[in-house]
Write a structure and sequence with these properties.
The complex is a heterodimer.
Chain A lengths: L3 E8 L8 H7 L4 E9 L5 E8 L3 H10 L3 E4 L3 E4 L19 E4 L4 E4 L9 H5 L5 E4 L1
Antiparallel strand pairs in A: 1-3, 1-4, 2-3, 5-8, 6-7
Chain B lengths: L6 H10 L4 E3 H11 L1 H7 L2 E3 L2 E4 L4 E5 L11 E4 L2 E4 L6 E5 L21 H9 L4 E6 L10 E6 L6 E9 L6 E3 L6 E3 L2 E3 L6 E3 L18 E2 L2 E4 L2 E8 L6 E4 L6 E4 L3 E6 L8 E6 L3 E9 L1 E3 L3 H7 L7 E6 L13 E4 H6 L1 E4 L2 E7 L3 H16 L10 E2 L18
Helix pairs in contact in B: 2-3
Classes of the chains: A alpha+beta, B alpha+beta.
């Protein structure tokens, strides 16, 4: 059985316009499931991808060769509970709906399973309560 | 109008332990259930609360004399500059102050990881803080340089003194432009991607006494987890109250408070340093104001619910930075708190910048202090200018020398 894993890909601006994911499918016969993709104002891309197939390792090497930074999604976002002030500034920023306000308590909830580790919240949080853990 | 009680009568009930005090949230429910007349006759005090970023905040401190003495003209606390243009060992540290070597927005958006607000938080938390100062040397103050570590306990005085806090109401901020904005109202996504607001609505102190009938100079308040006082109106104080779009609703705005209190009795969870991406450092301040129910009118306003309190929607891509007075409409706090509003035909997700959950906690703490007889109300020494003063804010004109 071929391995399946969730990975985070970071694309530098210079390769943002290349059909890299297409090559994973076409050249390496890998199965992909894009969980999240984003290009920031600096044209840098971030993608969270489920990837599987016999030639998985070759695919990863291809990505790295293209200048893509590949990380396993073992990386997680955790909330520092003692720091969070439940303001809600992260909730409209989180693209995955993992940070949301519970009503009527108006407290901010964090659903780690829904998180795609885009890390936007780590900078949107005024009190830096959202942390990356490896 | 209706029931009448005085500050003195309320304080007597607080001393005797039979005062009836409810939070502004509870007051909303109570008036809905019992009607205004009955609720006003039962309730003596309504407590309010807010916990949001308040940039016009800071501390003044006296760090004591060294041997030999120094006249400290330039002062840093954990690398953050404080103002030293006061007497020898007095200084004022503002919440938005940043270290000289902070990268600021040189790589936009800057992170502003540590500023004055963070120093204030660290001091209140009892953490050691590095003090560095320069002086030019005089016959009476010969020392030119000092570097040492202090904690809040080592200081003679350290007083939270905030020139403008507790804005009566605030804009709901949106972005009509085509690129992401990094503002003091948070990250605003392009093309009406989100709408951010920053008021505790039905719990907000100055929204619950919009005519400033009970809040004035000398009003004792919850400040940063301790006891503080309203000492003046805040800067840019220009209160006004206008009827809102639905019957019985109001659009109140422009009132502000200048507040002060001994930092040594405050708590770190109610004074939290903050880094607003692309904007700067600031301080989240917890404030709670008690409103004495002197008559039915005061109870009427203190019990106005979120759906009767409105905020203006303002574009932060062009209108706000260019000081255009256009508003895109009015939205109620119940709409804002629901998580989405409809603007220009589009459904827009909303999010708060101030913490309603913490505001509720503040109102509850203040309620307990009063119920337990630990907190007496103060009759204002002077009233603050109310909406009837019709204050118009001055703007700054650019003139040739």
């Amino acid at each position: 059985m071929a391995p399946t894993s969730k990975i985070v890909l970071r694309f530098p601006a210079v390769i943002a316009d290349k059909p890299i994911i297409y090559r994973l499918v076409k050249d390496f016969g890998l199965m992909i499931n894009i969980l999240k993709a984003n290009i920031n104002p600096h044209k840098e891309g971030t993608m969270v991808l489920e990837l599987s197939g016999e030639r998985y390792q070759e695919g990863i090497e291809y990505l790295r060769g293209q200048g893509v930074i590949v990380q396993l999604l073992s990386e997680q976002i955790v909330r520092n509970e003692s720091r969070c002030i439940h303001c809600g500034a992260c909730t409209a920023i989180c693209p995955a709906g993992a940070l949301y306000i519970e009503r009527p308590s108006m407290e901010v909830c964090f659903d780690g399973d829904a998180c795609v580790v885009c890390q936007l919240c780590t900078r949107a949080c005024p009190v830096r309560a959202m942390e990356v853990s490896f | 109008m209706g029931v009448c009680r005085t500050f003195a009568e309320i304080n007597e009930k607080i001393r005797q332990g039979n005062v009836v005090v409810v939070t502004a949230e509870e007051a909303v429910a109570m008036v809905r259930e019992l009607g205004l007349k009955e609720a006003a006759s039962r309730v003596d005090v309504v407590t309010t609360g807010t916990f949001g970023a308040m940039c016009s905040s800071g501390i003044y401190l006296n760090f004591g004399h060294s041997t030999p003495r120094i006249k400290a003209t330039h002062v840093w606390l954990n690398g953050v500059p404080a103002y030293g243009g006061l007497a020898a060992v007095d200084a004022y540290l503002g919440a938005t102050a940043l270290p000289e070597n902070d990268p600021l927005n040189s790589t936009h958006p800057g992170e502003f990881r540590y500023g004055g607000g963070h120093v204030i938080h660290d001091l209140v938390a009892g953490k050691p803080v590095r003090l560095r100062a320069f002086g030019y040397g005089t016959d009476c103050y010969p020392r030119r340089e000092i570097e040492t570590t202090i904690t809040i306990r080592d200081l003679n005085e350290v007083v939270l003194f905030n020139p403008r806090n507790a804005y009566q109401n605030y804009n709901c901020a949106v972005n009509l432009g085509s690129k992401t904005l990094y503002t003091y109202m948070g990250i605003l996504k392009p093309h009406l991607g989100n709408a951010h607001y920053s008021t505790s609505g039905q719990l907000s102190p100055l929204l619950k006494d919009p005519y400033l009938r009970t809040i004035g100079v000398g009003t004792r308040i919850f400040l940063g987890g301790g006891v503080g006082y309203v000492v003046w109106n805040g800067t840019q104080h220009a209160p006004r109250v206008e009827p809102g779009p639905v019957e019985g609703s109001i659009v109140a705005a422009g009132g502000t408070l200048c507040v002060l209190g001994d930092l040594k009795q405050m708590r770190p969870q109610w004074l939290v340093g903050a880094s607003i991406l692309g904007y700067g450092a600031t301080l989240y301040v917890g404030i709670g104001v008690p409103i004495p129910v002197l008559d039915e009118e005061i109870m009427y306003y203190a019990s106005l619910p979120d759906d009767k309190l409105f905020a203006p929607v303002v574009d932060y891509s062009e209108d706000y930075p260019r000081r255009q007075s256009r508003t895109l409409g009015l939205v109620s706090y119940s709409e804002l708190k629901s998580g989405k509003i409809t603007l220009m035909g589009k459904e827009v997700p909303t999010a708060p910048m101030s913490s309603y959950a913490r505001a509720r906690e503040i109102a509850a703490i203040l309620k307990n202090w009063i119920a337990e007889g630990r907190f007496l109300l103060t009759h204002p020494v002077e009233p603050l200018p109310g909406p009837q003063a019709q204050i118009v804010l001055k703007t700054l004109e650019i003139k040739e020398a």
